[in-house]
Amino acid sequence: MPKIEHVGLTSDQVQNFIDDGFVKVESAFGTELAKTCRDELWVEIGLSPDEPETWKEPVIRVGHKSSPPFIEAANTPRLHRAYDQIVGEGRWFAPKALGTFPIRFPSSDSPGDDGWHVDVSFGTDNADFMEWRANVKSSGRALLMLFLFSDVGPDDAPTRIRKGSHATIARELLPYGEAGATLRQLSAKGYASTEDCEVELATGAAGTVYLCHPFLVHAAQPHRGKQPRFMAQPPLLPKGEFDPALPPSPVQIAIRRACGLTF
Predict the structure, then answer these.
(1) Using CA atoms, how far apart are residues 147 and 187, in angstroms rounded to an integer?
(2) How far apart are alpha carbons 21 and 258 in whole angstroms?
(3) Phi, psi of 78 (to 5 degrees)
(4) CA–CA separation, 118 and 239 (whole Å)
(5) Which of 54, 113, 150, 194 is the most exposed place for a label (fewest CB within 10 A)?
(6) Could you report the per-residue pLDDT of 158-171, keeping only the tens digit for each?
(7) d(CA 223, CA 148)
């Protein structure tokens, strides 16, 4: 198994997170560990990598996985150091599971879930998911994360990311205050305010993790490649609200810079 360096992000990577809303962490976990996780997911969905004729759906979703390989992938020393650098030491919970998993298969059919959006973070007890909410303090979510469990090239349905869109969303959330905005309110105009943002594709080798600002606008896309794409898109959960007694984290700095806030 290749050795994973126990180093964190460079200062340039931290700044890129503040500016762009995400940072790509290569070799965040091992390729053999990624394969172990893929093998478990194949069993979960009842399909085989050797029988492509059975891949009928463009996407199959698996909920949360809490078996040891997935917990190990989410908690490498390299990732823990990066969580500290982006969210702040002692301000996040170590993941005890990963999910959800939108497993995408080569298909000419639309996946039906490829619209631009942000991931909301509280109010999820409401039966209408369009009423789930986000606020300018990002209550309930420290990060959005994209874990690549297979190699993902440009044709393999990589997540589309609108660079810098997190700043626009922060400004749009500000007038809603502590109560926040619903997903219905946020998506009312189709995220047109971010349509001029440069688009980056979340590509990389298995074992790559994208650490994304909670307000980053992103979208799925159809799979035009040959091999299924295995990815998890979990949150990193915060231990509490932003604490003004502590130095602001890069997540907070990005929001403050966008909105001129002092929290």
Answers:
(1) 25
(2) 12
(3) -65, -45
(4) 21
(5) 54
(6) 999 999 999 999 99
(7) 15
Per-residue tokens: 173: 């959330």
Which pLDDT belongs to residue 262? 60
Q: What is the DSSP string of 11-75?
A: HHHHHHHHHHSEEEETTSS-HHHHHHHHHHHHHHHT--TT-GGG--SSEEEE--B-SHHHHHHHT
First and final C-alpha spacing in the chain: 44
pTM of the predicted structure, to 2 decimals: 0.96
Q: Give me the DSSP letters along 121-184.
A: -B-TTSSSGGG-EE-TT-TT-SEEEEEESS-B-TTS-PPEEETTHHHHHHHHHGGGGGG-EEHH
- 37: tokens are 């996780």
Spans of all domains in the chain? 11-258
Tens digit of each residue's pLDDT (9 = 90 or more) over 33-86: 999 999 999 999 999 999 999 999 999 999 999 999 999 999 999 999 999 999
CATH, domain range 11-258: 2.60.120.330
Sole residue written with tokens 């990193």: 236
